[in-house]
Amino acid sequence: MRGAGKVRIIGGEWRGRRLAVAGHPGLRPTPDRIRETLFNWLAEIVPGSRCLDLFAGTGALGFEALSRGARCAVLVEKNKQLARKLEQTRTALNARDAEVVNADAVTWLANSHEPFDVVFLDPPFHQDFVKTTCALLTNRGHLAPAACVYTETEPGVPSRLPGLTALKQARAGQVEYRLYQYEVP
């Protein structure tokens, strides 16, 4: 994102609320159209679920899930400025079921064992984080049985991920997005 702006929550309790977005190089809030498709895919899964928003950035995915009835969401963001903005958003929405963690996503996954029903993975592009984080998710007890994992990547990233079955995929401009389901070993 080139400068500061706004992201709109598109469904649920906070529908229409605009979230302030800090200007930060490389920050790419998930566009409304993609979020609408994603949450249509997850309509039966999100209510009552435990969600993890890795590389949270704006928190649009985690806060959207909470707005649509998720039981809780952990938003992990390495950048201190962005993590502070996530805390401000949490306070503004009175989102008591949101937990903001200022930490490196890979390090946090390596040191945590919480199971989640839905994981949002929207890492910085061109840094090969999807394969690394998915391996940690499947090998460290982060995925509940039949958990869903959403990935958002640049075009051309291989879609096969060990332990995950691809359910849906689409492309919008320079973004490929996919929904997987965890295969319990």
Question: What would you note in describing this structure?
Answer:
With 185 residues, this protein is an alpha/beta fold. Helix content is 27%, strand content 31%. It has helices at 32-41, 60-67, 80-93, 105-111, 129-139, and strands at 5-8, 18-21, 50-54, 72-77, 98-102, 116-121, 143-153, 164-172, 175-182. Strands 5-4-3-6-7-9-8 form a 7-stranded mixed β-sheet, with helices on both faces. The chain has a two-stranded antiparallel ribbon with strand order 1-2. A hairpin with a 2-residue loop joins β8 and β9 (175-182). The radius of gyration is 15 Å and the shape is globular. The model has no long low-confidence stretch (mean pLDDT 90).
Q: Which spans of ≥5 residues are poorly predicted at pLDDT below 50? A: none
By secondary-structure content and strand pairing, the structural class works out as alpha/beta
The share of residues in helices is 25-40%
Proportion of residues in β-strands: 25-35%
Write a concise keyword list for the protein shown above.
single chain; 185 residues; alpha/beta; seven-stranded mixed beta sheet; two-stranded antiparallel ribbon; 5 helices; 9 strands
Short characterization:
This protein has 185 residues and is of the alpha/beta class. The chain contains 5 helices and 9 strands. It has a 7-stranded mixed sheet with strand order 5-4-3-6-7-9-8, sandwiched between helices.
Topology (elements, then pairings):
Layout: E1 5-8, E2 18-21, H1 32-41, E3 50-54, H2 60-67, E4 72-77, H3 80-93, E5 98-102, H4 105-111, E6 116-121, H5 129-139, E7 143-153, E8 164-172, E9 175-182
Parallel strand pairs: 3-4, 3-6, 4-5, 6-7
Antiparallel strand pairs: 1-2, 7-9, 8-9
Helix pairs in contact: 4-5
